[in-house]
Amino acid sequence: MSFRLDNFSYKSFRGSEKFLLVGHKLLGRLPGQRVTGWRYQKNLPVQDRSGGKSHPAEVSQSGKWRELVSDTTRHPEEEPSTSSYVDDTLLELRDVHKAFGSQKILRGCSFKIRRGEAVGVIGASGTGKSTTLRLLAGLLTPDAGEVLVKGVPRRGLISDANDANEMLKIGMVFQSAALFDSLTVGENVGFLLYEHTNLPEARIREIVRESLAEVGLKDVEHLYPSQLSGGMQKRVALARAVVRDDSETKMEQVLMYDEPTAGLDPVASTVVEDLIRSLHKKPTSSEKGGISSYIIVTHQHSTITRAVDRIIFLHKGKVAWEGTAEEFETTTEPIVRQFATGSLQGPIVYG
């Protein structure tokens, strides 16, 4: 088992959610469709997942998988086959329930993250958006339901030894950046490599410089987080999430962002949004350790329209609406329109 989350950091900072990048070695790549690039082509029939029968209503629109056929329209013999479906779905919440004490957060939440997707999770405060990220990342366990990694149920936390934790690399960027104040930028970005690899220090410094360059930062390794602007701290957190250990087998990665543009001015937000996109597009193949998909929890309208392709709207602990970023702007669904306009009239009620 090659779980590499610093135990001291995990135990000491769990309350403030200061976690580092989680990485695992690849046991083996599952067979199935291999999608090149970071998004699907437009208006092509979705790969057959139902025993040879095609479903014209299922198409790839604007480069996103969209499952437009409800369960009631499928015949019993047309259930998706596991062999062709698992390799496309990287992460899945299946009828997940989660409560903290007497407060029920998720009440049967189900959705999938497929290879090549840029997904936004939105909704009113307290609907479980950040909780879904922590469940998908393996930092929390569901009270009921399942979290699946490439079709394999995850048992326990990501630190526990099981096959699901060996199939996908997961990085997480928290809202507060969660940098160690007492460490320099270089030490923050290279923390995983310093603590959990035998790489020479010179090679670690080189990898750190490469990771910082990916997010547009140069000659900042010697600085401390307190010497950086909010936008620069966000970018350092991104660099830490994408830092690569070249001593182990490459595997595809899913990045998770919790409010990546919170507290930033509009220009700094645009820089971060474009950076998220560019990090996703850059790898030529997910098999080389590239970012296959990413998930963003956000309230910010510009992030919704610029940085994601598919949107999942949570309300009262369940998925209330799903659609593309374009459909988010045009749908007449009351809950979406209320959220988009900030109206006090609608299904979302405070107080």
From TrEMBL:
The keyword Transport applies. Coiled coil: none annotated. InterPro entries: AAA+_ATPase, ABC_transporter-like_ATP-bd, ABC_transporter-like_CS, P-loop_NTPase. Residues 43-84 are annotated as: Disordered. Keywords: ATP-binding, Nucleotide-binding, Transport. GO terms for molecular function: ATP binding; ATP hydrolysis activity. The keyword Glycosyltransferase does not apply. Residues 91-341 form the ABC transporter domain. Transmembrane segments: none annotated. Residues 64-78 have a biased composition (Basic and acidic residues). This is Putative ABC transport system ATP-binding protein.
